[in-house]
Amino acid sequence: MRGRAQGDDFWAWRDVMLGHARGLTPDTVRTDYEATYREMKAAGYTAVGEFHYVGLPEANAAVEAAAAAGIELVLLLSAYGRGGLERFRQASVADYLSQVEELGAAGARVGLAPHSVRACPADWLEEIGRYAEREGLVLHVHADEQPKEIEECLAEHGVRPIELLARTGCLGPRTTIVHGTHANDAELALLADADARICVCPLTEANLGDGFLPVARVWEHGIPLCIGSDSNVRLDPLEELRELEGIARRQELRRNVIPVPDLLEIGSGEGAKALGLEEWPGIEADLSHPSLAGVAPDEVEAALVFGCGADLFV
Known about the structure:
- The chain is of the alpha/beta class.
- It has 14 helices and seven strands.
- The chain has one domain (10-283): Metal-dependent hydrolases (TIM Barrel, Alpha-Beta Barrel).
- It has helices spanning 10-22, 26-42, 56-69, 93-105, 122-135, 147-157, 161-167, 185-194, 202-208, 215-220, 237-252, 260-266, 269-274, 300-307; strands at residues 47-52, 72-79, 110-114, 139-143, 175-179, 197-200, 225-227.
- The strands form two sheets. Strands 4-5-6-7 form a four-stranded parallel beta sheet. The protein has a three-stranded parallel beta sheet with strand order 1-2-3.
- The radius of gyration is 19 Å and the shape is globular.
């Protein structure tokens, strides 16, 4: 799908994505995911949280692909109670949790991923929240990416998505909200109180027309951030970090909203924490790269974020 026009809004893009997902098989997952993971590793990603939608055999193929590519993988198996494609959905929340356990028993590092409040009824969220707490697993969930999603949640539940996640026990220190683009101050306060984090995907959010995360307000609430490659428009963690700070600067009309060392931590340690990883492989930058020509040693970190691309990683 990379580089294609894909329709006029998020929902049109989603239709194209669903059409592509229909045709995936374990063999195509094994081949295409390995190629993607190798591209990610070359771009400086050494660990990936695979938010996996398309079935248990394909999940096992994704684990094999990551091993072949030499990248650390946490398999975030998506829970889908309704909507989407039939192949995304489990028969019950108990069926979903049994799939997670089967993957873990086979040796995969796993996390929980109720796809969204659109895809998971409240009773599913409650059971998944309890399971995550009991088993000490990370929990990733899309929330507040699109205004329509918020409107539907208000109509069904009388609260906004992050408020529903709090009500159903899905917010905690191992929770990562994916996007959070349209979270309001009350929801940000809930995230801060729960020690939850946000995975922001600036290049994807720009490509899909999602909007802008309120970066400075998130930062002022003390909510940890990490970055996701998400829809894979481009694979470049430095560009993700640059766009994140660029959004903040344009919103606040000032520079250095998030300090450079914190931006680099968002791109490394905070991502590892979101996946429950205590250690992960490192990556080296080629300090002789032309992008760093003439840069003073004490300015290299800033130059990495604001003047370089992933091609300098070795």
